[in-house]
Amino acid sequence: MFDVIGGALLVFAMRVCDVSLGTVRQIFAVRGHGVIAAGIGFVEVTIFILAISQVLTSIKDNPVYIFAYSGGFATGTLVGVYVEHLIGLGNRMIRVITVRQNDAVVNNLRNRGFGVTQIDGQGKDGKVYLLLSNVRRKRVPEFLQVLKEHAPQAVYTIEEVRYAHGGVLDLVRKGK
What we know:
By secondary structure, the chain is α+β, with helices and mostly antiparallel strands.
């Protein structure tokens, strides 16, 4: 009995690991880090082969392995998303539209080290101001907090940036 429980827990743990690694691998691959993604993929598939072989050799005698395998997959998905959130790789482009020029929001963002480009624009009902900022993903909540304090009615969008070069983000990264 303990062998079955131990084996099922091992399968569960292996699936949590390999699915979590798969999530992280995909993130690295999408961001263009092929070598890192390949290394993670190697480990991921090795764990997968060990897990699936354990399930296939024990499936007739112990169907609990199927549930351990499936539960590990589901849990691994959750863990992978959580790990990806913790890693916080990449940049986000934040576009902000305000109906009035708001120097307070721009100055506060710049004082906190955010690069902000301000553009005059024309909206449906008149003049608007567009703010553009390339922000490290981990700093997005800080950016939004300043925005909510100084421009709570602003409209904003946040998009993933695949590649960025130059600007304030690079100066912050290099410690200048």
